[in-house]
Amino acid sequence: MIVELISVGTEILLGNIVNTNAAYLAERLAGLGMSVYFQETVGDNPKRLEETLRRAKDRSDVVILTGGLGPTQDDLTKETAAKVCGKRMHEDQKAKEYLIAYFEKLGRGWEEISENNWKQTMVPDDSIILYNDNGTAPGIIIQADDNKKIILLPGPPNELIPMYEKDVEPYLCSLEQGVLYSKVVKVDTLGESSVEMQILDLIDQQSNPTIAPYAKPGEVHLRVTAKAKDEKEGKALVMPMVEELKKRFGSYVFTIEEDVTMEEALVSLMQRYHLTFATAESCTGGLLAGRLVNVAGVSDCFKEGFITYANEAKIKHLGVSEQTLQKYGAVSEQCAREMSEGLAKNTGAEVTIATTGLAGPGGETAEKKTGLVYISCTINGKTTVQKFQLKGNRSRVRNSTVVRAITMMRQCILREYAEI
Amino acid sequence: MIVELISVGTEILLGNIVNTNAAYLAERLAGLGMSVYFQETVGDNPKRLEETLRRAKDRSDVVILTGGLGPTQDDLTKETAAKVCGKRMHEDQKAKEYLIAYFEKLGRGWEEISENNWKQTMVPDDSIILYNDNGTAPGIIIQADDNKKIILLPGPPNELIPMYEKDVEPYLCSLEQGVLYSKVVKVDTLGESSVEMQILDLIDQQSNPTIAPYAKPGEVHLRVTAKAKDEKEGKALVMPMVEELKKRFGSYVFTIEEDVTMEEALVSLMQRYHLTFATAESCTGGLLAGRLVNVAGVSDCFKEGFITYANEAKIKHLGVSEQTLQKYGAVSEQCAREMSEGLAKNTGAEVTIATTGLAGPGGETAEKKTGLVYISCTINGKTTVQKFQLKGNRSRVRNSTVVRAITMMRQCILREYAEI
Fold first, then answer.
1. Nearest-by-CA chain B residue for A214
2. pLDDT tens-digit profile of A245-263?
3. Which residues, 6 or more positions from B413, have their beta carbon under 8 angstroms from its beta carbon?
4. In chain B, which residues have their Cβ closer than 8 Å to the Cβ of A287?
């Protein structure tokens, strides 16, 4: 099935916002095995939108439009789509109820609902309405007479994403013969030159299920998707492949849950074993703790961290020896080791992690080039230090270090506690 | 002048990467007063690319294509563009020299240059070559016979951005009658409900120069652009408006330099007054220091920071009193004040900053709702505490806190040292 994406909004044309919706939808659709050949962005201009939509409807089976469903006069996506499909509009009673309920949730009475908001409850004939729990604009699936589908979704990601996952994806699957069943296997890339290289045989043989790899910084998501007559058959096709991938990548698989991030997987693991951790950061300068603290509930295991950017701070808070700094420098295996070991001593945390590296620009020597990073992890008195030569500019080196530190912590905890 | 953007690349169609190039180019073009009505994304498919490019060339004056200039057989942007413009290809001698120099920079001999790389030195007739310091693919401006311009740029942002700024923008300006001269005034939004509201009169009156506001998290960029016969006249038109904006926003203007970020402006200010700073973070958990450390040269003024996530860490490292924590809680004006004052005492830094807040989810009380944040800044024994009620989810509250902390530090330093 061929799907085309049209993003509507002057703010995208002006570059005021980056179009993350298109990337989100494209990735989800690829995961379903659907083809996206074109993505377009147009402003809130009915003539140009109509021209673009007619062409898209002509060459694709499904067109998804995002944005332009707001209450203002600029917002003309719905009217234009109805015109292109030759549909008249009517008022939807349930959309009115949702609108009133949404205003009440905001603590505002229905008498505050403006004429323009009521306009949002008008929908084209022969359409499926996707009621919106997070905003005033319902989504709409228009079923055109030529069997093409035009799907209208609100632009704000916090409205679009839940609506897509709850209503649109199941609808799209229903258009195919049977169902599409999919699972994601998330693999971290520490020590792996290429995750894809290790599954080339599986990719070559694939027919049903298919395996689609997506690379993210420091991780690869392998989406396994099967077409089947029902969910049960889909699961039976997908799960053996998931098991095969888990076997191949072992402890490098950090989750097979759709919405679990790398840092959440790490924090869950620490919660499972009742571990606390502490951080000592030089080159990452707080980014590592900053990312781990984004996990709600991290306070169970995280009490404190140090940003020891200067040598004096490494000595004062972590007990790194002056001799080590003089002899080997701050960016050295020895310094990294003393950092995480000193941190363990000073904080009593079961797991301590330390980063030190050359993020550049400047500071290079003949032996130490920008991108040289040492990460040290101490657990119950046992220390592992790893050396990395990372690529890219200051910001990229620092962010790559964060991802590798998270991976190292998880690997070391598994080795210590799960006896892998 | 009407400009159209075409992004070429299967990785965008699959959602593997977010299209930040389109947003970057759109914003820069809007700043030059140029109109972008359409943006498209197509894969590495010559037929679909040709169809898209022909239509774009038909309806726009300039078409900028990004991506698809790589060395592999998939990369067909250049060949397709030459075909659409009816141009033959020839080898460019200087592009060959650049290619050899680039390989040498990587420490690789020219004998390692593959057949496919040499292909990258082929260019269409009647074109301007944009030599690439950061990669193997030159950019190309094809001047078509119908006076339309097709501009081909490499996809990686670290190649595209310098090439656009150095070569493409001046070229586009040269196409207009006279020149476009522009300056950006970057304003932080602390305490300002809306920057735009304060310049509505200027926006209403504008003709030449124009003022275009772009909102970013915690800051607004006001781009002032004039059309003029030469740079001198442009400057004479633009600078009085820049001065007016500086007068209206006073110390909230953190820079009028194109490439200076909020954190760089802060670090420069501290370098100017020879100040050191230290950080103590609770809800931001390292993100604030992490962002400041992204400024190269921050080591002049940053030695150490603490992530005091737990109450015990606030007591141990910052000397917050147990009584304060019991009576007012960790998220309180009193706690924030003791954090930055204790930090000053323990580190001796001239400027100390502390964050404490409820980023959610969970932990709310009747008085303290998610998004409640206190930031405290101590300079030479004088402390300023500000209370914020921020919107959004955990990640947004934490990032908003970082931006406000940076702004507060700058404001407090200016008040103490610049006598504003």
1. B16
2. 999 999 899 999 988 999 9
3. B266, B269, B270, B273, B275, B351, B379
4. 286-287, 290, 293
Q: Which chain B residues are Cβ-neighbours of A41 within 8 angstroms?
A: 22, 38-40
- Residue written as token pair 């008498």: A111
Tokens of B131: 């030599």
Max Cα distance, chain B (Å): 81
Cβ(A27)–Cβ(A3) below 8 Å? no
Contact A278, A349 (CB under 8 A): yes
Using the predicted structure, report yes or no on whether residue B190 has a pLDDT greater than 70.
no
**pLDDT tens, residue by residue, B224-267:** 988 888 889 999 999 999 999 999 999 899 999 988 999 999 99
Dihedral, CA of residue A325, residue A328, residue A332 and residue A338, to nearest 10 = -50
Which single residue is written with the structure tokens 């234009």?
A80
Inter-chain touch A40–B39, beta carbons under 8 Å: yes
Determine the distance from the C-alpha atom of residue A200 to the mean position of all C-alpha atoms in its chain, rounded to a whole number.
25
Tokens of A374: 């040492």
Contacts of A393 in chain B (CB under 8 A): 158
Count residue pairs from A and B with Cβ separation < 8 A. 217
Measure CA A87 to chain center.
37
Neighbours of B90 (CB within 10 A): 12
Residues of chain B in contact with residue A217, where contact means CB-CB under 8 angstroms, are none
Q: How far is B158 from chain A (nearest CA, A)?
A: 10
C-alpha B29, offset from chain centre: 15
* Alpha-carbon distances of A301 from A207, A213, A257, B213, B222, rounded to whole Å: 44, 32, 22, 43, 44
Q: How far apart are CA B117 and CA B96, in angstroms?
A: 9
Q: Tell me the C-alpha distance between A387 and B279, whole Å.
A: 28
Confidence at residue A213, expressed as pLDDT on a 0 to 100 scale = 76
Give the β-pairing of A89-91 and A122-124.
Answer: antiparallel
Nearest chain A residue to B47 by CA distance is A37
Closest chain B residue by Cα to residue A276? B310
Reduced to 3 states (helix: H, G, I; strand: E, B; else coil), residue B246 is helix
- Helices B262-272 and B394-413 pack at an angle, to 10 degrees, of 30
Phi first, then psi, for residue A119 (nearest 5°) are: -55, -30
In whole angstroms, give the CA distance from residue B238 to residue A18: 28
d(CA A84, CA A51): 9
| pLDDT value of position B62 | 97
For CA atoms B239, B240, B242, B246, the dihedral sign is positive
Whether A311 and A331 have beta carbons less than 8 Å apart is answered as no
Q: What is the pLDDT of residue A385?
A: 98
- Taking CA–CA distances from A278, the nearest residue in chain B reads B307
pLDDT in the model for residue A420: 56
Strand partners, B228: B179
Low-confidence ranges of chain A (pLDDT < 50): 191-193
